[in-house]
């Protein structure tokens, strides 16, 4: 009996894992026009808000595009980057996510969509549509966004730390990071082109200007003239000033990123690293100085769709949140009652127990979705605290 329970427990943990690994970037169930019947105006509503927002704040296009990438690379494209944690333990609390912006626009879109068709459009899909619309608004390519993603219920700071790629990454790490998500070397070089819009804080590349190997030196792979220009914007130790990643056209989605890389003016080590692999280098060089004539737009459309498939939850997996920062169904809710000496209840506290691992052993029946609250007894924690 105990063995059977253990086996069940093991299977419950293993099957979803195998599912994610097996499916990688080829999530089933996503399709163009997923909301055609259930919320026909979904994309129109997003577009209205995006046009209105970017008209007054075009500098939000970069951040709004980046949110989808940061969502997809941690647990897949399932909206986990949007979840809040009362204890500061969510993905958005991780250092690599500290520069993320635009959450309030996602909330605004979600509120509008909840009015239009309550409980239908997932936050993960909103991120994917917003990412496309932010590129279009900056004169970039349009692509049909596959939808039908559902929202996850877990967001974990450690996973963000482990899964987001550092701007210090070399080409081997970048290729491995993309391959792990079912993305190709071509996807890597094409999606890096997303850096044609937006800005970066000095903290992401300051080491290249002042202390590259710990000896007060500069990065020899970065154009020395460019280093001098960058130093004017990022003084020693400045972490927070913003620099345009594609100077002069950071509000225009164009192919200029590759021209910069070819001139050794890629801002991050991860940008410069694209010259260190035969395939990525060939792509960079063949797109440098091509202006409107390159295949970059066509490639970007394809690679964004590829990225949008990573670990997507579909069908009955996950949920559709009502508010993007909050889980709708709490996975495991644990109740703790504090009694006085005479046995009367002083206080009840509710804890979320992500994955049900803190207060219980793995019990599959408690993992069923679609129930708002599940209660599980747990051990007495202190002198006058009793289990329920
Ligand atoms: C290949 C690995 C990548 C690395 C290491 C990387 C790293 C970074 C870093 C360090 C920043 C500046 C962040 C800050 O100042 O807080 C940034 C900004 C940005 N990234 Fe990436 N990135 C990568 C891939 C991508 C991809 C695939 C996309 C989208 C398709 C993307 C879109 C952007 C955008 C739009 C910004 C500007 C954000 C803003 O204006 O606030 N990046 N990236």
UniProtKB/TrEMBL annotation:
SUPFAM superfamilies named in the record: Heme-dependent peroxidases (SSF48113)
Enzyme Commission (EC) number: 1.11.1.7
Binding site for Ca(2+) 2: 196, 246, 254
Binding site for heme b: 195
Keyword terms of this UniProt record: Calcium, Disulfide bond, Glycoprotein, Heme, Hydrogen peroxide, Iron, Metal-binding, Oxidoreductase, Peroxidase, Secreted, Signal
PROSITE patterns, per database record: PEROXIDASE_1, PEROXIDASE_4
GO molecular function, one term: metal ion binding
Catalysis performed (reactions): 2 a phenolic donor + H2O2 = 2 a phenolic radical donor + 2 H2O
Subcellular location per the Swiss-Prot or TrEMBL entry: Secreted
Boundaries of every Plant heme peroxidase family profile domain copy: 29-328
Disulphide bridges: 39-117, 72-77, 123-324, 202-234
Pfam families according to UniProt: peroxidase (PF00141)
Signal peptide residues on this chain, from the entry's feature table: 1-27
Function as written in the Swiss-Prot or TrEMBL entry: Removal of H(2)O(2), oxidation of toxic reductants, biosynthesis and degradation of lignin, suberization, auxin catabolism, response to environmental stresses such as wounding, pathogen attack and oxidative stress. These functions might be dependent on each isozyme/isoform in each plant tissue.
Family statement drawn from the similarity comment of this UniProt entry: Belongs to the peroxidase family. Classical plant (class III) peroxidase subfamily.
Name listed for the protein in its UniProt record: Peroxidase
Natural source organism: Morus notabilis
């Amino acid at each position: 009996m105990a063995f059977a329970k253990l086996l069940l427990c093991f299977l419950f943990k293993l099957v979803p894992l195998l599912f994610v690994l097996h499916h990688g970037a080829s999530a089933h169930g996503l399709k163009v026009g997923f909301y055609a019947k259930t919320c026909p105006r979904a994309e129109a509503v997003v577009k209205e808000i995006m046009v209105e927002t970017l008209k007054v704040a075009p500098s939000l296009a970069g951040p709004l595009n980046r949110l989808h990438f940061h969502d997809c690379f941690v647990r897949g494209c399932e909206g986990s980057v949007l979840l809040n944690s009362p204890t500061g333990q969510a993905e958005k609390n991780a250092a690599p996510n500290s520069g993320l912006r635009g959450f309030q626009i996602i909330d605004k879109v979600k509120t509008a969509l909840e009015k239009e068709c309550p409980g239908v459009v997932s936050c993960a899909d909103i991120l994917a549509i917003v990412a496309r619309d932010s590129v279009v608004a900056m004169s970039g390519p349009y692509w049909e966004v596959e939808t039908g993603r559902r929202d996850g219920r877990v967001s974990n700071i450690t996973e963000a730390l482990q899964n987001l790629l550092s701007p210090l990454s070399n080409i081997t790490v970048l290729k491995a990071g993309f391959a792990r998500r079912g993305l190709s070397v071509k996807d890597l070089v094409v999606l890096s082109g997303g850096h044609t819009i937006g800005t970066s804080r000095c903290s992401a590349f300051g080491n290249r200007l002042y202390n590259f190997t710990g000896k007060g030196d500069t990065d020899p792979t970065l154009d020395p003239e460019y280093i001098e220009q960058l130093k004017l914007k990022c003084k020693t130790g400045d972490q927070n000033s913003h620099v345009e990643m594609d100077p002069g056209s950071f509000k225009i989605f164009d192919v200029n990123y590759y021209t910069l890389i070819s001139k050794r003016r890629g801002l991050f080590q991860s940008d410069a690293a694209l010259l260190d692999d035969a395939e990525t280098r060939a792509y960079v060089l063949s797109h440098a100085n091509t202006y409107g004539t390159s295949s970059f737009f066509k490639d970007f459309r394809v690679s964004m769709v590829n990225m949008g498939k990573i670990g997507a939850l579909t069908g009955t997996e996950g949920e559709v949140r009502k508010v993007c920062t909050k889980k709708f169904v709490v996975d495991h809710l644990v109740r703790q009652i504090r009694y006085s000496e005479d046995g009367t209840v002083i206080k009840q506290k509710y804890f979320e127990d992500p994955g049900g691992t803190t207060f219980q052993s793995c019990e599959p029946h408690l993992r069923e979705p679609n129930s708002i609250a599940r209660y599980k007894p747990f051990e007495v924690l202190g002198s006058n605290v009793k289990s329920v």
